[in-house]
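To close the section, here is one more complete example, presented without commentary so you can practise reading it yourself. The ligand is pyridoxal-5'-phosphate.
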Amino acid sequence: MDYSKMKPESLMMSYGYKPSLSEGAIKCPIFQTSTFVFKNAQEGKNFFEVAYGLREKGQNEELGLIYSRLNNPDLEILENRLCLWDKAEDCAVFESGMSAISTAMMEIMKPGDLLLYSRPVYGGTDHFINHFLKKLNITAIGFLATDSKEAIIEKIEASGLADRLTMIHIETPANPTNALIDIEMCADIKKKYTTSEKEVILSVDNTYMGPIWQHPLKHGADLVLYSATKYIGGHSDVIAGACLGSKELMGRIKGLRTFLGNMAGPWTGWLLMRSLETLKVRMEQQAINAKHVAEYLQNHPKVEKVYYLGFIEQNANAREIEIFKKQYTSAGAMIAFDIKGGEKEAFSFLDSLQLIKLAVSLGGTESLAEHPQTMTHADVPTEDKNAMHISEKLVRISVGVEHYTDLIADIEQALK
Ligand SMILES: *Cc1c(COP(=O)(O)O)cnc(C)c1O
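Output:
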């Protein structure tokens, strides 16, 4: 059978693993080892020559393992499996989403460069951009989901650093209100500022919708970034991250990972491989549950407005509807809503939930609820909070795999 024609979900249990190399074990063992024994000194020399880029890999050369900071079977097999969902050439897995994002940014940009990014981005990313990268003399300018291409280009020109634009980083849908950004529009801006000397790299943090419901590489992105802590891990029991893209770009990013030493360990790799087997069934069920929960909220008298992509036809403008149809195959499983009242009512609702837990993070098997304004987005400037409807009455829910009637019953009693 032709494995390359199969759907990713059919390959998550076996792809890239040879049982005969591990005593016939059906599952890839945890290779809890720091280093690997070479057959002879010449083999060690060969592996290092390729690993350190001293020469290209020979056509039929089989490369072996060296040291677990460079490669480890749990890491490599996991990376090969992650590539299947996004149809990426290569992947690097990290010990957290933040290490994937920060390593990619540090590899792509250098002091004096300009970064364009969508606002608001994940709080950790925002802090890294506006504190650490600033210290490296990297200037960042933000744009909102509502800004037009022309308005964004105007901002780039006004910065006086248009010729130093090297990276565009976006998050779509934006957290927590599901505002959409057009990846193809960002790819056009990338092309406009790419010259023969420097390519502008477009990266998309796909944590909210990936790797099942959005595939940014298809729309012109160069890098896809994940907090694998969320849907990919999916059980709220591991912190991890991933970055995917072309062989060339990933070669650079993996190079920096080797020297920062922030690769995922074998235990994290093994946990994520286990999670990937159920990724699609989990996410599909979460999306079905989210639809039921959103519809319930929509009709509740104590709810003012529901931010859910399944309602986009009713709520959004033509441009957003077009982006949704182009980029997404599902409305996802993240919902936010304005409760009637303010912080007091929102907190009272959160404190009354029983089955749904009051916690940040998202994408796990259990449903979670939180208050973005005072929790995940506490650090976001007031101006952005206002523009993105992150007000005191906003509550965010990550819908899990419980039975939706139990989730709705919990929400009903908490609203009461
Ligand atoms: C959680 C999250 C991150 C950070 O990932 P960690 O695994 O916590 O380091 C980055 N981006 C988004 C959109 C996230 O939700």
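Once you have examined the tokens, check your reading against these statements. The pocket of pyridoxal-5'-phosphate is lined by residues 96-98, 122, 124-125, 171, 175, 205, 207-208, 227, 229-230, 239, 241 (CB under 6 Å). The chain has a mean pLDDT of 96.
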